[in-house]
Design a protein that fits this description.
Layout: H1 15-28, H2 30-58, H3 68-107, H4 114-123, H5 125-145, H6 147-157, H7 160-167, H8 171-182, H9 186-203, H10 209-235
């Protein structure tokens, strides 16, 4: 993992420059970024598939022969899926914190260290997990009621993990700062979100490759959002 020779300037110009810088940063240290993602995605994915298989097979849903033993198996499988969902939430929060720390370190002229990234994320794990839960509920409820409120919640709160990792904010401060800074970079957030969604949607239909693609797409998204966050800070230093 080579250390960059000089600090990467925060893109203060157009959107194209920000996107170009984000892709360059990812490609320069793609190995560590993928590893940061795999540390969470592989175990969570395997346990989730195991829970799904256990629930379906145990419930006789695949055999068409439900019985008491099968129902117990189904209940166990559902319990495992719920547990995995909780573990997944925690894992995603820690992965996000690690990716943001890595992106900020690289953009500031440092190196991408998997160990240091997760160490920094674990130091703020409580705040990150609570924020992911709060934002997840807001986006989920908004999406169930109407699609637009869910999208609005994502737009205004997508910068909360950056506020925690880069400005050491608490839950309330991070939510408030995210709303203020999101209004400074609306185009950047929308474009990054659309690119991430489109790529994830396309690769989701490709077995195995789709899962591996997320290990590249998600790091890029957090790199780009981290750069956008820093750009918004420059536009509103007192935010």
């Amino acid at each position: 993992m080579a250390t960059p020779k000089s600090q990467t300037p925060v893109p203060s110009g157009d959107l194209g420059q920000l996107l170009s810088t984000s892709f360059n940063l990812l490609l320069a240290q793609i190995g560590p970024y993928i590893l940061i993602s795999l540390i969470v995605l592989i175990p969570v994915g395997l346990v989730y598939m195991l829970a799904m298989a256990f629930g379906l097979l145990g419930g006789g849903l695949l055999t068409g022969q439900p019985n008491l033993e099968a129902l117990v198996g189904t209940a166990t499988g559902v319990g495992l899926i719920i547990s995995v969902s909780v573990i997944g939430l925690i894992g995603q929060a820690l992965m996000a914190g690690a990716l943001i720390h890595a992106a900020n370190s690289q953009a500031s002229g440092g190196k991408v260290s998997v160990g240091e990234a997760y160490k920094a994320s674990l130091a703020k794990a409580g705040t990150l997990i609570i924020l992911f839960l709060v934002v997840g509920i807001a986006v989920g409820v908004g999406s169930i009621l109407l699609v637009l409120p869910g999208l609005a919640a994502f737009f205004f709160f997508c910068l909360t993990p950056m506020a925690v990792m880069l400005d050491n904010d608490g839950v309330g401060q991070a939510l408030g700062r995210s709303v203020k800074l999101a209004l400074k970079i609306p185009v950047e957030i929308i474009v990054i979100g659309v690119i991430t969604f489109v790529l994830s949607f396309i690769f989701a239909f490709i077995p195995f490759i789709g899962a591996l693609a997320s290990c590249v797409i998600m790091p890029w998204a957090f790199i780009a959002l981290t750069l956008a966050y820093k750009k918004a800070q420059e536009a509103a230093p007192a935010a």
